[in-house]
Amino acid sequence: MILPITVYGNPILRKRAQEIKPDYKELPELIANMYETMYKAEGVGLAAPQVNKSIRLIVIDATPFEEDEPELKDFKKAFINPEILSYEGEEEAFNEGCLSLPGIREDVERPAKIKVKYLDENFNEHIEEWEGIRARVMQHELDHLDGKLFIDRISPIRRRLITGKLNAIAKGKTLPDYRIIPNK
User: Fold this and answer.
1) The CATH number of the domain where 93 resides is what?
2) Is position 141 annotated as part of the catalytic site?
3) Are the C-beta atoms of residues 54 and 15 closer than 8 Å to each other?
4) pLDDT at residue number 184
5) CA 179 to CA 30: how far, in whole Å?
6) Which of 47, 110, 147, 154 would staple 158 via disulfide (CB 3.0–4.6 Å)?
7) What is the pLDDT of residue 32?
8) Could you give the number of structural domains in the chain?
């Protein structure tokens, strides 16, 4: 089932999401719905707060980037209670967008390499090191779980320049091609 996406202005996007316990009801169904929602909106990552669930859950399918990074061919995973253990390397700029900020794209600098700890769909723990697109997408989505948006990582001048667009999104004047939860 395709879920509506929360957009800028919805307070859930600014809250720290809660950890998930193994007894969380209907988790497999939620994960499947999040993938379906992400694909419909043409995204590569989706965090639970973006579908109005304040829990620490992310789905990523970075296979659209496999042409640039062949190792992303089968990089499709759900991440439960993920956390970044360490950052390495110089910060690199990349033009990011977000399903919760339709129509806005900005260059964001993030560390090139990260070490991540997460639970898979069976609550098995994993610790992995990633760089490139994997590291970028995980950092972007994990920000959502901590109540942050990529626009929080751009310069104050750039942020001021997009204030009109942000206000339009918050007021429901910018409508993407996918279902959203209108702000009240």
Assistant:
1) 3.90.45.10
2) yes
3) yes
4) 78
5) 17
6) 154
7) 98
8) 1
The Cβ of residue 139 has, within 10 Å, a number of other Cβ atoms equal to 21
Query: For the whole model, what pTM was predicted?
Result: 0.94
Residue 64: the pLDDT is 85
Mapped onto helix, strand or coil, the DSSP state of residue 80 is strand
- Please count the CA atoms within 13 angstroms of the CA of 111 that sit on its side-chain side: 14
Q: What is the pLDDT of residues 43-80, one digit of tens each?
A: 999 999 999 999 999 999 998 888 888 888 888 999 99
Amino acid identity, position 65: F
> Residue 8's pLDDT is what?
97
Q: Are 30 and 53 in contact (CB under 8 A)?
A: yes
Question: To the nearest whole number, what is the mean pLDDT of the chain?
Answer: 95
Ranges under pLDDT 50 in the chain: none
* Residue 127 identity: I
Q: Find the catalytic residue in 66, 106, 128, 141.
A: 141
Note down the domain range covering 107. 5-181
Please state the three-class secondary structure of 105-170 as a single string.
Answer: EEEEEEEEEEEEEEECCCCCEEEEEEECHHHHHHHHHHHHHCCCCHHHHCCHHHHHHCHHHHHHHH
Non-local (6+) Cβ contacts of 50 within 8 A are 5, 6, 13, 99, 100, 144
